[in-house]
Design goal:
alpha+beta; SH3 type barrels; six-stranded antiparallel β-sheet; 2 helices; 17% helix; globular
Length: 77
């Protein structure tokens, strides 16, 4: 797996489906993300990435709103 193929979830456009590869954060944030099903190797569809609107993703058939800082630490392919 080449690092340059990875990009932060925050840069993914609405309508794109991506796979989580890595989460670069502390244990607490990883635990919160795991509780909503956001784990490595899980597919995520970005529903809304409008500025300054909310960052909304569909994960495990549920819509979730993420902070942009959090979305910037989730790397996808």
């Amino acid at each position: 797996m080449e690092k340059q193929q990875l990009r932060p979830l925050a840069l993914v456009k609405a309508g794109e489906k991506v796979r989580i590869i890595d989460i670069q954060s502390g244990r607490e944030m990883k635990s919160r993300l795991a509780a909503i099903g956001m784990l490595p190797n899980v597919e995520v569809t970005v529903m809304n990435n409008g500025h300054p609107g909310p960052f909304v993703v569909n994960v495990c058939n549920s819509r979730m709103v993420l902070g942009r800082g959090m979305a910037g630490r989730i790397f996808v392919k």
